Amino acid sequence: MKDIAYFKKLAHQIMFDLSDEEAQDIAKEFDTLQKQLSLLEAIDTTNVEEMIYPFEMPTTFLREDVIENVCSQQDALKNAKDSAEGHFVVPKVVK
Amino acid sequence: MFKEYNLENVEAKVNEALKKAHKSHELYNDVVTFIDPRAQLANMPKTGKMLGVPIALKDNVCTKGIRTTACSNILNDYEPIYDATIVKKLAAAGAISICKTNMDELAMGGTNLTSNIGACLNPWDTSRMSGGSSGGSAVIVASGAVDFAIGSDTGDSVRKPASYCGVVGVKPTYGRISRYGIIPYSSSLDHVGYFTRTIEDAAVALEVLAGRDDLDMTSSDRPVEAYSQQLNSELKGKKIAVFKNVYDGLTNPDTKALFAKLIANLTAKGAIVEEVSFDEKLLKAILPAYYLIANCEATANHSNLDGIRFGVRKPGKDVEEIMINSRTAGFGSLIRKRFVIGSYGLFVENQEKLFRQAQRVRRLIVEEVKRCLDEYDCLLAPASNDIAPKLNDHGRDELSDEYLIIENHMIIGNFTGYPSMTVPMGMINGCPIGVNLTCKAFAEQTMFDIGAGIEEITGLKDLKKEAA
Amino acid sequence: MEYDVVIGIEIHCELKTTTKMFSSAPCVFGAKANTCVNEVDLGHPGTMPCVNKEAVKKAIQICTALHLEIDPLVKFDRKNYYYSDLPKGFQITQQFHPIGKNGYIMINVDGEKKKIRINRIHMEEDTAKQFHLNDITLIDYNRAGTPLVEIVSEPDMQNGKEAAAYVEALRQTLYYLGVSDVKMEEGSMRCDVNVSLKPKGSDVYGTKNEIKNLNSIANVQKAIDYEVSRQKALLDKGEQIEQATRRYDEALKETVLMRKKEGNVDYKFFPEPNIFPIMLDSEWIKSIQAALPELPEVRKERYAKEYGLNDYDISVLIANKELADTYEKVMKTAKNAKMACNWMIGDVSAWINKNGGSFQNINCEYLGQLINMVDAKEISNSQAKDIVLPEVMNDQDPKAIVEAKGLKQVSDSSTILAIVKEVLAEQTQSVEDYKNGKDRALKFMVGQVMKKSKGQANPQMVNQLLLEELAKLINN
């Protein structure tokens, strides 16, 4: 059984917080999920390849190296909450 | 019907549609953002297959300069800097977009209850849900405000609300319509779909929407057929497989009766109708397999929503804190939970037995369905066990056979990528319920043909629930 | 204690394409911030990747030049992590199916040839560029999405010198292929080095340290040499090596700790669902391979065979592709390969260094003609160097210059002999002095002949004829 702290930590890795309640919910739902997943595990998939795409005929198309779509600096920054001198601005990133 | 629109009446029709849309927005909460149509009217082409047709777009369709939120707080103020390919295609065909419609947050739901602007109500009974995730689009077509609306379908997000709202809901073959510019859910399952009230309009619409788009490498370069011109409702000799597991599992006698009546009518019209069963174990694994594939892909697909370049940005002392605060405030509780599951399924130590196992099960299911459709023209089943659930209905047992199979069988259309469509089947207690048909890859013509035959049988062509 | 040093190198190299790896926005170095982007590069919702054909072509060229097996079925994967310079929250790369596997490159260290194996080459996309100011960071997405190849070596190098030779050999090869600018200082070629030590003869690898972002080949060598001695000192004291990422501090001339590795980061790799596998046309691959530009190694052999140059001259020419290319063009006109080589390496390079300009702009036919004039002793070396070369470098016809300035060297013996006789008749005193053993008198008379010929007489011939005539006078 995974606990609240586990899910909170997991959430942090993908950049958000969970409240205690939310983490508790997940822990509970995880139980149902595990049961559903057991339905998945019950299926014998020996020698079965993953199906990653609905259609598996390889394609051949490659894009020609020609400029077709550039947006203006104004458009690039249009949705930015903080910008300066044509750049997106964030608090200093410490490498 | 698209035929009613032309260059002469376009302004009047668009204004009428807007008026109705405002009304349905008031009644059903089906609209997120209204679009000022003047620029489109000024620039519209002189000819086109959808000339002057007012339409609605699901709010996950990117529209340049027009707010597009996918009903998520994180995109609350987002104005795309480009148009989705289908937006350009619709404009080139003469259609006029009048609004963006309500949906489940980031299309991750089947109820339309998870939208950041609240639930979308069913026009046939406002105490019931519209279904989702493309609830707003289903409702605005059902209410008669517009004759066409774009939706997207990852699980059954077009076909389920179509059933609940009594309209035609089409999900063509994977790759038939470009996904470029559609805010994704799960890339290997996402399809652009749409709603109409007649099969004929559905056939015309696909002629407009389909076709290769080099911006979407998964789009198909197969030629687009003249679906509407070739439309033929003749059912004689059509081989129809009845999805026996679903039929047997129906617990609602009214639904069962409606479906049985439909089968009898199909047979009477000369269709060859036979029952086909699938491995029950595989069918029960559809939902968990879907849940994993969809959430694993979704958590990666939405990693771009970090508050740095667009979308809501919450303050923080460093970039990590900004991302965490923005994403915490930006995503609803349910979405974050799903991302957690998705991320869990992708971990190196879990991926083999979760994500990849789901992908392998997907293959087994697809092979099973393919074997069936090698022999039949279509696979037929009720779209759900019952009419739209009540808004406050949370009593579903998510481990019951009914839920696992009856309410999720349409996911097969997403696993296989095969064309699948819901058509109104009948009414129960004044509310509609649909029938779903799934055909071979790229056999949209067959799907429309059989759909037209069903439409003639049910007489539910152009079904709508206009506000009093 | 004695140790074996194990060094492996990962090189990221930007491909010189017109557009990005997955979008049709331009790749331009040094453009105004955020003006070479579109919605794809900014990771906007709903965008999808579309693979650049030219980038694939260049990757194939690199794989071919480095003898890798090419996988004709191109697949991409997602590498998931969050960082301010990563627009999508994942990088599209080729984790599971790199385009090339199992190749090698030959290096030359102190005259010894050594084969360095290359494990894999894969295609991926670059991140945005960040500028760190006092309390904020500015982000420019122009670089985001630029095509990259990552070249991963086997741990086949044993010291800084070999590592530097490997990086230089790769740099040269990629440059000759024309696939990249390979400028380490501008970041179009980036080098991460893994260094570990193990007891001599042991087959258990030691704990490695990664040195990131080395910005010159010289620093590759210095950083490794330092790191090896650092690890050695620790091991000798019986201490453990901690796995870590380090950087090279040029001022301190030391590798400095950046961060300790806390287990492996899980990038949750999975296949990119938006790019179906792409089957490359085998004819296309063959045509790319058949038209592969000449590689430095091949060119070295050709220069030895075709021009008879020595190893030193060849390596100087090859090290600078523009110089070598120009040399070849000059050799279409010039007849003396060694002399032409000396001119190119010497005076021509010096002129370019001093005056700027580039080898590409040289009129090679004129330069070849000039070298031929010197070779045929039509003009003197100093005339050629001081007077004619600067004009040739400005695209002037050397013949016209020689003509106009009256520089033509007179090598016609009868003309010179006439002047010599004239001088001998006039300078009787000097002739007497010469007879009396005063050598200076000869020099004086040569000068007189040169003066009368307005400097055009071939000095060697003047010398020779004067000696002959003087001998006749003495013997008479």
Structure description:
The complex is a heterotrimer of chains A (95), B (468) and C (476). Chain A is mainly alpha-helical and 95 residues long. In chain A, 40% of the residues lie in helices and 7% in strands. Chain A has a domain at 4-43 and 65-88. Chain A has a two-stranded antiparallel sheet with strand order 1-2. In chain A, a hairpin with a 2-residue loop joins β1 (83-84) and β2 (87-91). Chain A starts with a helix and ends with a strand. Chain B has 16 helices and 13 strands. Chain B has a domain at 2-234 and 451-458: Amidase signature (AS) domain (Amidase signature (AS) enzymes). The two termini of chain B are 21 Å apart. In chain B, α3 links the parallel β2 (54-58) and β3 (96-101). With 476 residues, chain C is α+β, with helices and mostly antiparallel strands. Chain C has a 9-stranded mixed beta sheet. In chain C, α2 packs antiparallel against α3 (217-236), α7 crosses α8 (337-355) and α12 (413-426) packs across α14. The radius of gyration of chain C is 31 Å and the shape is elongated. Chains A and B meet through α1, α2, α3 and β2 of A and α9, α10, α11 and α13 of B.
General shape of chain B: globular
The neighbouring-strand order within the major sheet of chain A is 1-2
Note the gap between the termini of chain A: 37 Å
- What is the CA-based Rg of chain A, rounded? 23 Å
Oligomer: heterotrimer
User: What percentage of the residues of chain A does DSSP assign to strands (E)?
Assistant: 5-15%
Strand order of the largest sheet of chain B: 1-3-2-6-8-7-12-13-11-9-10
Kindly provide the name of the CATH class of the domain at 2-234 and 451-458 in chain B: Alpha Beta
Would you tell me the overall average pLDDT of chain B?
A: 96
Please give the count of helices of chain A. 3
How many DSSP E strands of chain A? 2
The average pLDDT of chain A is 93
Would you tell me the structural class of the helices and strands of chain A? mainly alpha
Helix amount of chain B:
25-40%
* Uncertain parts of chain B: none
Order of helices and strands of chain B: HEHEHEEEHEHEEHEHHEHHHHHEHHEEH
CATH architecture term of the domain at 2-234 and 451-458 in chain B? Alpha-Beta Complex
The most extensive interface between chains reads:
A-B, 51 and 68 residues
- Apparent shape of chain A: flat
Radius of gyration of chain B: 21 Å
How far is the N terminus from the C terminus of chain B? 21 Å
